[in-house]
Design goal:
single chain, 5 strands, alpha+beta, 4 helices, five-stranded antiparallel sheet
């Protein structure tokens, strides 16, 4: 659920370079935003950023950054997007990657966007 018990949908996509996943993105979209902006449900695999800011979305505040390791659920979800990231890599505590999150307001509703930068990109 979204803060305040508002139901939200989880959208997950990967951004690829030459058929290799480089960014794993998760977006929490509250149901009222889906109702106001029906196109959110019709994005498919299209990157949200391609249309979000053209549709009136505005970033709130700055990006929050963090380092992720194999013990983090977001790291594990991102690593599953790449067949070349072996199980051993996911268990290696020395392996880390970076992620960022930001809030975007779209027609009065807040969306939470998290992006995990996979090995090879940074």
């Amino acid at each position: 659920c979204w803060p305040g018990d508002t139901p939200a949908r989880l959208r997950e996509v990967t951004l690829n370079c030459h058929d290799t996943a480089m960014i794993f993105a998760r977006t929490l979209i509250p149901d009222p935003a889906m109702a106001k902006d029906g196109w959110l449900a019709e994005l498919g695999t299209k990157p949200l950023g391609d249309v979000l800011f053209q549709s009136g979305g505005e970033r709130e505040g700055s990006f929050e950054l963090c380092r992720l390791g194999p013990g983090d659920e977001l790291f594990q979800a991102a690593a599953r997007q790449r067949s070349d990231l072996s199980v051993n890599l996911m268990r290696d505590e020395a392996v880390t990657t970076w992620a960022r999150r930001s809030w975007v307001r779209l027609h009065g509703e807040r969306l939470l966007i998290c992006e995990c930068f996979l090995p090879g990109l940074i």
